Amino acid sequence: MAKNKRNILMITPYIPRLSQSGGQNSSFYSIKYLSPDNNITLICLSPDEEGLEDVKKYCYKVVVVKRGKTWDPKKVLFTGFSPYPFLVMKHINKDFRDAIQNELNNNSFDLIHCDCFYPMPNIPKTKIPIVLVDLTVEYNVYKHYVETVTGWKKLLKPFLWIDVLKLKYWETYYWKNTQTVVAFAEEDQKLISKVTGRKDVKLFQNGVDNKFFESKPKTAKSKFPSILFGVSNMKWMQNRESVEMIIKDSWPEIKKSIPDCKLYIIGRHAPDYYGHYQSKDVIVEEADFDGQAKDPMYYYQHCWVLVAPMGSGGGTRNKFLEAMACRLPIVTTPEGMGGIKIENFKQSIICNYDKIAINTINLLKDNKKRNKMGDEANKLISKNYSYQSSVNGLNQIYQEINNKK
Fold first, then answer.
1. Rounded Cα–Cα distance for residues 8 and 2 (Å)
2. Which residues touch 335 (CB under 8 Å, ≥6 apart)?
3. Is the pTM of this model over 0.85?
């Protein structure tokens, strides 16, 4: 390891990668900009090795532990008899724990950085300070899901509520029993402080890589009015709920008012979930990897407006930061813009759910207003949401911990 750098053991429940998944994307750029001042040993749990070579460039060492299927019948069954919720159970892994223990036994670390709380049971007891970076308040996301389930899934509500209560218990437990807790949005920071009574909960200002607001557009805007949902991981329930909200309520009204408009549903696994919506007016695609022909930036630059009504809040939407950096205005609900401080109707639009369609229509019909809003969004992100400045804050948190040792 290089001298005069902190030695960090970083633990993630995935391989941080340049893809359309918010958490993985945030972790990747955190590692990239932490690497000049820190020797990072990364241990991650993953079903594959996609993105491994990219993140290796910025780490002293990377250990990937193979994760089994998400819906393993044994884990589903054991969850019913376990004190842990399913989200935690599927990340409890003996090989994962052994890999962490091995690094702790054989190397010296200044601190442990864990992204998300659910890998925490795999970390053996240690005197090394642990920084828990909670990208979103998980139990609120799952609570909202249970509250809104429909159809035959209502029969499962009693079991789902039990899982939510277990999730809340353990998430709160690790907030209370970790050296330092870092939230991704002020709303989450206030909630964690209120629940735990802690006055020392830190805030990480999520950011955007410089390439999004420094590079000149490579892709021309579509010649027809176009709406983007994405670029997102459709396995995340909040994103699927948002797509259904658009398709059910907003899209029919928009299409009626602007007949030549097209809707792009873009993201990881999008064709798996929404391929049945594919038509000449609804384009459902999986974005290419970063730097390829149709990567996320292609869609940000090609479309006119990003529309994403969100049913629940928590964390900061990477896709919003990246889109705004690319001069793409956002239309969302109050739950969607967490962690991003905008002046409403200047850099983007926050409105009630029943106003999503009309505000989108007005924006699509007013080129001057839309372009000005896009320029203002770009200025805001480039000034306040650079990953380089965000990670400076994380380095300061590290330094505070080291000074207390």
1. 12
2. 310, 311, 312, 313
3. yes
